[in-house]
């Protein structure tokens, strides 16, 4: 190989090293199933597709026939979350600042509560009740226990993206379906798992039976996640279809979006 050829080859190799990875190389998917107690059948399923820094969360009840479940677009670059109802062709947007304000108000409320569990769940310090190793994080509080088993994320970036998605999802749940435990224990666990470069593959929440009865909730919930380091055939098409639904759906406020059918009928009247 002459000198000129060596220079050209060196330049090509340098360009290849300097080129950023394709977006598809950073894409991954997570399938989730939620179980109540010791039940063998899931009560809900979801598929979350991560691509180009965006997470598309496709939510379906376990008994859904023919799809049509809610879609949630997590768009951190634009500091927003968009909820889409394909059946009603509606969408609503929640800005990141609204979730941040919710977090502040929830923490203030919880820390002043007369209930020991709620006050504990307001945080911010969970150090004494939290233990972890290379595969599990456990957090024990008054009448409650979280246990999260995790596996190594496909990349460091994937671990951070999943944590950002999971944090936003639990705050969104607190906004849309209020009444559960404050989100701060789970946020602390998410932070610990991401710091270890992991993504949860099994999450268990156990509450004291007396609390479950009062709150109208099951004594235990578990969620199983299956992480795949690449998108599968059809995932990109599903994302493209979801993008079309976002563009076509009618924008409404959050109260209208989450209102039960009878409330929506009253508004129409």
Could you give a short description of this structure?
By secondary structure, this protein is of the alpha+beta class.
Characterization of the model:
The structure is a single chain. By secondary structure, the chain is of the alpha+beta class. It has one domain (about 20-269). The protein has helices at about 5-20, 95-110, 115-120, 155-175, 185-195, 210-215, 235-250, 255-260, 260-269; strands spanning about 30-35, 45-50, 55-60, 70-75, 80-85, 90-95, 130, 135-140, 145-150, 200-205, 220-230, 250. It has a twelve-stranded mixed sheet, with helices on both faces. Strand 7 and strand 8 form a beta hairpin. The longest helix is centred in the middle third of the chain and has 21 residues, at about 155-175. About 25% of the residues are buried.
């Amino acid at each position: 190989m002459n000198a000129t050829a060596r220079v050209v080859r060196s330049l090509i190799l340098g360009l290849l090293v300097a080129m950023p990875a394709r977006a598809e190389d950073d894409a991954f998917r997570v399938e989730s199933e939620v179980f109540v107690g010791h039940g063998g059948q899931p009560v809900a399923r979801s598929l979350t597709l991560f691509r180009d820094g965006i997470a598309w969360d496709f939510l379906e009840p376990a008994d859904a026939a023919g799809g049509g479940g809610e879609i949630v677009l997590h768009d951190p670059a634009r500091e927003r979350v968009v909820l889409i109802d394909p059946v009603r062709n509606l969408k609503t947007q929640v800005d990141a600042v609204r979730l941040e304000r919710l977090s502040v108000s929830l923490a203030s409320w919880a820390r002043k509560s007369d209930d020991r569990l709620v006050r504990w769940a307001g945080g911010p310090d969970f150090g004494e009740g939290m233990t972890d190793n290379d595969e599990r994080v456990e957090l024990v509080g008054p009448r409650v226990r979280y246990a999260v088993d995790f596996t190594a994320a496909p990349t460091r970036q994937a671990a951070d993206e999943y944590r950002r998605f999971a944090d936003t999802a639990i705050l969104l749940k607190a906004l849309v379906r209020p009444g559960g435990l404050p989100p701060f224990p789970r946020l602390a666990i998410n932070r610990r798992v991401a710091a270890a470069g992991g993504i949860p593959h099994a999450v268990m929440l156990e509450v004291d039976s007396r609390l479950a009865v009062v709150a109208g909730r099951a004594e235990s919930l578990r969620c199983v996640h299956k992480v795949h380091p690449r998108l599968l055939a059809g995932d990109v098409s599903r994302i493209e279809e979801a993008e079309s639904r976002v563009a076509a759906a009618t924008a409404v406020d959050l109260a209208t979006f989450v209102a039960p059918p009878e409330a929506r009928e009253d508004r129409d009247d």
